[in-house]
Amino acid sequence: MSRSKLFAIFIPAAAVGGWYTGVLYEKSYGARPANGDCTCGVKYDKWPGLPLISVHAATPIADGAEKSVVQGSRVSQIMKYGFPGMSNIRSQRDFVLSYDQRNRVPYWVFEHLTPESIKYSEGVDRSKCDFFEDKSIHEFFRSTNKDYSGSGFDRGHMAAAGNHKACQQFVDETFVLSNIAPQVGVGFNRNSWNRLEKHVRKMLRVYPNVYICTGPLYLPRREADGKTYVKYQVIGANSVAVPTHFFKIVVADDGKGRLDMESYVMPNQPIDDSTPLHSFQVPPEAIEKASGFLFYNAIPRSKVSSINGRKSTWV
Known about the structure:
Elements: H1 3-31, H2 67-70, H3 74-78, E1 89-91, E2 96-100, E3 105-113, H4 145-148, E4 153-157, H5 168-173, E5 180-184, H6 185-189, H7 192-202, E6 209-217, E7 221-222, E8 228-229, E9 234-235, E10 240-241, E11 245-253, E12 259-267, H8 284-291, E13 304-307, E14 310-311
Parallel strand pairs: 12-13
Antiparallel strand pairs: 1-2, 2-3, 3-6, 4-5, 6-11, 7-8, 9-10, 11-12, 13-14
């Protein structure tokens, strides 16, 4: 048999074998309390796991077939409606992200919220948290606290700390720098962006499950010469990219088969607090085109009842 044919057989087999080993590890890891003592009182045993063959967002999850693989895995709950891609995936205990090594910020971050998961637990204290480097990322591609120091930008959470108050470990992990991107502080991160995060949590008063995807965008702008450019600042010795905009796509599940979606894009600049959040709503397709990712494509379009408060016209 030729060398090329051997490689054609060996490489896919090795990839599948490695993937399956990872799934088995995830199953055992996800079943254990963090450090043996942090269950946060939340039970995760009712949700389907990852698909057996493909976890691309454009591939629907097959009913039942995958449940035996990673039943109970927190990752499978968070990513219930599909992965936009598999580049540099990092799964924390309560959120999942894909890391952009070139720009030193996330591509996207996924969360799954329930009324129980955001409930404050006694002893959880955000003031105990410190931002820290993600040592799972090669040092060439990490952001550091020094990159942000003196930059004038906040270290902005993609998975919001306020979404993970069930136990101290969960909120601690939101401070990993792979979950962070440079955000304008006053007028944005501490104001309008915070309003949006609170709005999403308030949705849990109506919906028992809320799924969130958050990330940066680098949008083009027409300059004085009439040409269109994508321009953004970088900060620190590691040239951490400063996004021009941020997006947030939310899928709210009423537990009875109804799914409602909201999608937002906000400029990374001071925004007047009187500006209503709905003014930043955009079609989810606009975010997909700008980011290069397909989000929640494991949801049959017929199952989405409304988008941004209007009856869905997806087909």
